[in-house]
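Input set for joint prediction.
Command: fold jointly, output tokens.
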Amino acid sequence: MTTFNVKINGRGYGPTEVRDELTMNDYLREYLGLTGTKISCGAAQCLSCAVIVDNPDGTSYTSPTCIVAAVRFNGKSIRTVEGHARNGELSVLQKAFIEHFAFQCGYCTAGFLNEAQVLLERLAKKRVPRADLEKTIAEALDGHLCRCTGYIKYHEAVRDVILADPQRYLV
Amino acid sequence: MLAELHAGVLLGVAALLATMISAQAVSDVPAESLARADSFAAIGDTAARSAALFTEAAKVLTHPRCMNCHPAGDRPRQGDVRGLHQPPVDRGEDGFGLPALRCPICHQQANFDPGRVPGDPAWHLAPREMGWEGKTVGQICAQIKDPARNGGRSLDDIVHHIGTDHLVGWAWAPGAGRQSAPGTQAQEGALLDEWVKTGAACPN
Amino acid sequence: MRTSRRDFVKLLTGSGIALSVSRLALAGGGDFAARETLPGRQNWNPAATGAGRIDGVVKVTGSKLYAGDFRAADLPGWPAQTSHAMLIRATDATHIYDALDLSSLTGALRPSVVVTAEDLARIGVRVPQFYAGDLFCPIRRTPVYLGQPIALLIFEDFDRFDQARLALRDATVVKYGEETGQITRPPYAAFRFTRVAGATPDALDVYSPVKNGWVSPGKFQNTERPIWARLPIPTGQEYAEAARYGEDIRTELAADNPARLVLERQFETQSVDPMFLEPESGLAWYDPSRKNLELVVGVQSPYDAAESVAFLFSEAKAAHKPARINMQFAYMGGGFGGRDHTPFPLYVALAAMFFPGHPVRLANNRYEQFQSGIKRHAFSLHTRMGVDRATGKIFAFAADHVLHAGGLANFSPSVATVAATAALGIYYSPKVDITTVSLPSRAVTTGSMRGYGTLQTMTALEVLVDEMCTALPLDPIEFRRRNALKTGERTMAGNTYSVSIRTPEILDKLEQHAIWRGRAAEKTRGREAGSLVGTGVACATKDYGTGADCSLAAVEIDPDGRIAIRINGTEMGNALGTAVANRVAAHLGGVADEVALAQIDAFGPLALVTSGDARKIDQKTQDAAARNPRWVPEISSATAASTGAHVGTHAAAEAARVIFRFGLWPAALELWGVGPNDSRAKEWERARWRDGQLLAPAPLSQAVAPPLAPLSLAVIAAKVHARNGVSGAMAHGFNRWAWSQANFKIDGQNWTADIDALALRRGRGKFARLDRSNVRFPPTDFNRIGTTYTALCGTLVRVEINRITGALRIAKAYSVLECGNALVPQVVIGQAQGGFAMGVGYTFLETLPLYEDGPGSGKWNLGQYLVARGSDLPLRDLEIEVLPAMDADERPKGMAEVVMIPVVAALINAIFDATGHRFGSLPVTQQMLKEVLT
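tokens >
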């Protein structure tokens, strides 16, 4: 058993004592009822379970939660899909996903949102040439499996968010 | 690029599994043993003995635990069936992955058995020049000896690396669902030590 | 065979279970029904402006929506704590199950309850006919199939469950004894479909399934395989007659005739998994003090699930027999057929029943989902096609299909028949003979999956056609033009389609497309660059509908003009909620902001009753039953077979038409001051909505009356309520290859519509049923029809193959389809893109061994089972074109399956064009490509 603390969508949780084998995914879904983060393969092969981890230096990355122990997130600050909208206002990406009809059943959507959000933040810090945009998006999203959509509308949504603000994201 | 499905490999593994009781988990498959270094003393010719030692040591080097991260290309393999790693990951610039899928995110400081994910503090891909996939034992031998392709290591460095390095050592404690490399790390180190002492000859 | 409704009603009353599935009272935002009724009155509705789906907001914000999201604490009125259950499943189906060893579960890890076959027998559980078989393998018997449940373990709380799960994972839990081999059983089904056309196109068929009935061979050798030959037996003359014609066709195909070309080929397809992203799960709670059983699941077939759970306990001992079962159905994270008639809800119900007072969750992890989820059938296909060399026309077609089915029958017989009747694809042949048999095995259960057998048969067909074109030779588009079934021509079942057949347009599009036109040049260019380039084409037509489909809907409009819709159809990604809202909006001028799906008892006012089996009932019985104004051949049905647009939205559209005609229109007339004798009063069909305003029809004659101002929906709705007009309608429709029709008297008018039940609501009043008159149910001999509804899709692909490695890249692709009036065009395109991806996976990546090294072992996950990723697809080079509807009145067609089908053969044909090798099995892996290139 280990005691751990974690910040989720800006709010502190803990100290909580949990088994060392408890996965972060089970902590989110079973302990906290935050079921926006999904579980699908449970083996980090589909990335439906991915959340955003925010480093102290201002960088962020996505992490699966199904094969990482909850206690590994001790002291970390994470964002889940439930935290993207602020005061009822959807994020630019959330709106783009809706307007592009990017998802169908929606089960993989949380993972794609988190990944795309991290990509936007990464590009805002280090822009890429327009010619590299599609490849950059493809590399960022390829770990995420979707069975319904064939991916195209997801990619178009992310691309269009970036193209709508080229100074921020593109060289 | 389309992901590969090595039907040939799968068929081979299926045949292997068919010889075992189906109810057993793959992790129950016992690791092969390694011959002890001194058991080669019977081979009179030094060069032949040296080559035989390396051939034995190569059972480790060509085992999935090692080969999976010493690929010919930029993508690691996964599992005893040696399928392409899912999710698809790429070596990236530093061998630790592309920005969206860095190795240490999933492969943490140690194995996480509840998630059946292996881990080590140094988890990453061997450099491209150290890829052994598709090579013969003789070719791997030459490659390992070549400072241009082995990270500038001397033969003693090689023995030390394979015999004591922590990430290499993971191969013998790979976690549930994975067959261990043959023998033990100490045995492997001893084989390679004797190989160097006998002239580090390469098999054909 | 389904339990007849009459029996079920007897079960209800005789056994005392009330299957009232009323929704939990709407209690401010939190309850299940409120979460699943979208978008919700207070919330933004992207669909209102066509800018998204009604479920758009909930899906991007991670709101609780799927069955897997809910725990007891989320459901008002339930105890707070959730217990967790797991199934122990057999991984051996050739040895006797000897013992269950849970010794690794000590102390706190011990389950609170262990349920086995013996427990089910003890309390008197009955298995519904569709799911016939032991729900748990009894001890000292050989499991019938890999993955068959052996025991259900229930743990007090999640932590105990999780620790037990980990402890059991490395233990040997099930002990097996003597080897018995696989349990052998007779085929699930066998049929012969034979058609011989008359001498002229207008002449009656000499023989056909529609004309002469469906036949099955009567004899089986060693209970394993049917004997297809004509046997000199006194009974079974119907089969003998079909076999006589069939054998003649085969003799003709076998004859040596230089004027004709006959190709005979074998094609093998593989087992695959629907791999919907949300694994199956459910939550249930049995309250023994009130004898109330609550369940939450996500299935494509809610009505069947509810009936089946009720049947399960209908004869149970008193302590285990609920008085009331309340089932609620959630949005699904994918379905693809795998959630249609799945046995999973039965186990969820049992978990609750054996741990009374405790809410219990049962959920598959992905290993378990692979181990037990319904699979697509692997097919062995032997096909013969004969073509006249001079004309290029098909003179005869014969095929033998073997379906490699799994442990439970499920939909296997149905898949066999649908696959067979689609085996001729887009083509016409005057002579057809097809045998099909579905063989059980110890493999994981096979059932419905996108394409439903037609993916397999049409892939084999389009690959054979491609070879035929090479052999004749004849241009592949020209061959298809000459042989495409034309409007009015008969299918191989012997009927005509009742919808548009747009093959010529589809073929024109394929022929004119740059991918096709540039194929020779691209091949040459590829050769120069050192790679192999090929282009492939294929064309498919897929039926939509099952022959016994039901549409149920209630549509209501409030005094502010806000629209609420409740339907029986389900949501699995298909955007049915948005589609029905859009279809209703065409009639009512506004997009609903409260859409509730998967409803099974929201239609009480219709007071429907049913009896018999809609697929087997005879005409006399149907006519007699129809005299009861509340009788229908079937009350509800699953969302499957591409029926969302065509069936799922139908009753809502009919209800909306009634509301418009008898609610909104009279109110509008009153607001316009148009009297009943004014000729404009009858022009309700010519009125149009624009931007939420009703535009009066333009005057037909040189009217002197002043123009009528547009009226907003809100204003009209207020008027409807003020005058206590029709503000809501509830309807039922039944489709057996045609909609049932009936007449209703509404406000003195005779109203004829494609529905068989109707209830109306006036103002804020309650729904009141109207008696129908002159109901016309589709004739029972329509059950002989293969299908009357079909939608087409053609696909072109260009592939580039690396000569050395065999790695294949899809450089460009194009799919063109038609689907009548598309209710949500962006979703049609999305489905076509997703269907393309699934087709790519099926062609190159996905395969499951059938037996011990397959998913039944419980060891399969996405590391071995490869599903198409973005990097496998031409993300920027896939063009989808949807033909505009024939006219504004063309009804929507189902297209969700057809968009997957031609992709596979197009890829196989492209590989042939590139390499000269024609593959006869799936999947085609890189290794296989590499081997044919070296």
